[in-house]
Amino acid sequence: MCNDGNSATQSVRYLNSQLAALYQNASECVQNCAPILDFKSVDYDKTKYTRSLAEFHFVGPKPKKVYSTSELFFSATFSQPKLTFICNHEAILYLTIKSGHFNLDHTKANVPGFRVETSKNKQIKDITVAFRMNFSRSCIKGGSSKIGNGSSHVIQLMVLDFGSAKLASFTPTQAHSQTEALSFYMNSYLDFLEHAGHHTLFDIPDFDDDKYSPVIDYSLSCTPQDVDRLCSAEVVHGIDLSQINNFMHKKWLSVARLGRPKDQLSACLAEISSSWLMNSAVDSKFHIQFGPPKVLALCKHEVILTFDVEKIAFFHSDDYESEEPEEYAHWKIAFVVDVTEEKEHEGCVTRLKLDLNTARFSHHFSKVSETTEFAIAHFYQIVHFLSVDYLDVLIQYAMHIIYHHDVRTITHPHKHDHPHSASESDCGSDAEEEKGEWGIVIEKEKKWHRRHGQVALWMERIEHTVLCGYDQVLAVSEESINQMFFSLWSKATRKDFDVLLSKWTLDMFTASFEALRVRLLTNGKAIIWVNVHEGQLRVKSESEKQKWWSVCEFSYAKSTDKTEVHNFSDLSLAFEVDLKMVEQKTMDLSESWLHRFTLSHLFQSHQGAPSRLFKHLILDFANAKYRPELSNVDCLCEGKGRMVVQKLETAISYIKDYLTDLSHHGHNVIHSVPLFTAGDHSSFGLTSVAHHIIAKSSITVDNCSHARKPHESPVILILGMCNFRELTFVPPQWNAGWVISGRGQSSLGTVCLSKSNFLEGVLLKRLATINSLTTIVPNFAGVIDGEWNFDLTTWAKHMFRKNRECHWTFTGHCDGALHYVWEHRDGWSHEHEGTSGAEKNGQYSIDCRTRNKLSIPTIYRPGLLEIVLHGESSLKISGKDAHQSWSKKSSASWSANLCIYSRSNGLQIEVTGNTAPVFSDLHSEGECSIDVQGLHAQHLPKTVDFCDILDELKTILQGTWEYSSPGHFAYALSNPVFTINGDLILQLGSYDAIMKKELAPPIAVTGSPRSPHHKSRTELTVTTTKTTGGSGLEVTTSTKTVRKSRSILSRITSVKTSSLFNSSSSSSSTHESGQISSVSSDSPPLTTPLLDYTGTAVAQSTYFSKSLEGESIAALTQEGHAHVEEV
């Protein structure tokens, strides 16, 4: 054993000496014996292994006698072999061909009886073939009295694994057309050598009587030249070195930018001081600043870990601030370390860890430029410190993890795309392997489940959505937030909106941005990605003289500083932010945002109520926390030293200022809710509100970038109570139906109205009026002036009953519907007896019956919610006197369908069916002159009137949703469906996007007076005028006349651009305008401003009533057509 404790060099020499001796034996055998060409002979069989290191003939599966070696596929003589070692796992065996030949037709070499075509033989000479292979060490323990020196000795063996051998190189390099054949024969030669026993050698003998055994570490004997020559393409457990070093660089960068955190040792990968540790292994006082560590691979199990000591200062006292230290720079301190691989989550997660317990200092890969005695002494002091103390600190802070990858993670979660979930095959196999000499594979039982589409999600929504006692729950999808940011950014790039979202400059920083991207976390926070397309920043130049070991707070470069300019692109910084619900009056908002908000649908809907309080759900950009593990900062990593840290810190600091600026302009508002305060009343206006994030499984910083299916994304729930009922927080349960996004749909979320709030509070209450109008009750019955007489009325007109509701009774849920019924029977019986001959004695009765049924579907039908009502009414009058008995019965029925359609412009509500009562044949017995059916028809409504319920439903559901909005935008409702619990769920879409589709070129509509020849016809002249330029110069005018006969309410839409609001603008602009030349006097035009996603007034809708003829008014094109839509 040498002084350094490593006997690797002696071991290599000893092993090669054995190979040399064995080769000399083989060479002598070849030289002293006559050539043998009969490969079936005993002579050949007895000596073939002895001569194997010096001579080899490829004889194939069936040895035979030949007359010349040229008849063989391969024949060669060899020089002495050489064995070298790269690490403690792999060796290189060099085999040199002195002379010989090989045949190119190697694929036929193992075909019995195949004759060699000598024309395909290639002569070879002085070619060295290098094989890289695994090896293992073994030993034989025993004792012999003849040996002495103790009772037990160890014979060490080196076993080369020829089966794992891979061809490393040919020297000189061979033509590509020949390497395949030559490789085949040389691999056959290795197999021959293994059968000859040359894969097993004795290592250094240990028959002495001391207690020390030789320590052999081949890795420490490896040199940089060996690595460059033999390991340049090596990977570690299948992971490329560039990926590992990139991971380590990012980890170092995230630590280096921390400066001096409270827990100083947490920055150990970038900086460490002897004063941060107690009872250090060395006495010196020092401070070290590290560059990013790097690894070089020796094999897949071992690496060279190099610490880059950028700067180091040695002190004589604890007063680091005032003392001038002894400084050194650019030291390299390397360790040979084993690497272990970990697999988790069925193979989805791969992690590489340094086994720092195996770390050994490598002087071959270390570097110290100074040659003074003090410098060398300090250098080895630090080597000792790193070996004993520092590596343990790295383990404590998990800095020994050099690679981590999760295949479930989306490569670019910050990009606006449509990620697909990771397939099962990405996450490894479901099979488990039982280790042993023979591999046995036991497969787990697999249950296959078919894929489900939108229908299953709707069923989930209907069957499993529970509101937990809230009056209203609004679900905001993660996708909708990202759509909003993308839409705003798109407009900003076209300069149609706040340019801040696409470009921003502050001091010596400028950047152009892509759209913000959000991912929600289940802890009530969110990750926001700020994506910089291109940018430029300036950082301070590194000073030659500065106390780098002192605590230095980051500061921006000033115009007076010496700076360096750096351009960058494709930068993505991730920040963790809180989700907060705040009152508008507490927010620092710009005048531009406040102005846009006052023009919004939400504000306009409530501007008549000054006591209305607006709350906003915001992303708290002001307290954003940088998340390095989710960021992509590769574009800033070019350069040396701390300049990389300065660039990153500068970018992060400026982006935080940018986020603050975004907050000031309201771009962090993702949802707005008007709160109704004391004195206000609304069935759906919220008086208290909270928010909560739910997901199928926990979403954290660690797994938020995992791929997932769209319906499994987390959802923000806005939870509210109405009419000042107390809000008790109960988190609703997750189900896939909270938000449904499908192909061709643009669902921003859902709003859920509780059973008590909508079904009972509006629908059943209003439909109870139908019961009161269709329920006939007796008002009086008796004998007057000798005749049977009675009076009927309806419940709605009855003196005592008209103020009481005709409540619907729930009868159950079956056949995909909630069933309700209203039943009422009122029967009067009258007996009259007297001596007056003027009055008829007898028994008289009247029976009034009403049965109304209501069916509310709980099955999703695309585009339609159809509520079915059916009513039955009967009136029976009967009598009996001394001479006869008689009766008459009248029956009637009616039906109606309350249809809520989902159209391109939102919900439309109408009533269909036979709402006029239909009377069946009169049932009569005996003689009765009373017109029972006439009386029945007189008191039943001629048609069942649904006007009140229609008006209220249209107010609530059509147009914009007035009780919340995505910022200053607006929601439109669609696809209503009732759950089995009676709650109403509606999808939320962008009302602004709907109006963009509905917006048409401006028009002028002129109604002409009725012609005497066309008394039922009214003509409308539709005129489109287009003007160009700031002066409003008219360019084109087109006119079209349309006709319609029936009375409708039509909407004429005109488009205006923001230039109309800035008459002083000097730039050329194009806009269109329109007017209604005349409308009927009983329906004056109403003007309502419309807003697009920018909040700019872009259109106005004028409503008017006219008597028209024809089916519809054509939707006209940009060249002169107008859009007149029936509402």
Automatic annotation (TrEMBL):
| Region (Disordered) location | 1004-1034, 1060-1085
Residue ranges constituting the SRCR domain according to the UniProt record: 518-565
User: Compositional bias (Low complexity) at which positions?
Assistant: 1019-1028, 1060-1078
For this record, the Gene Ontology CC terms, alphabetical, are: membrane
Native source organism of the sequence? Serendipita vermifera MAFF 305830
Name of the protein: SRCR domain-containing protein
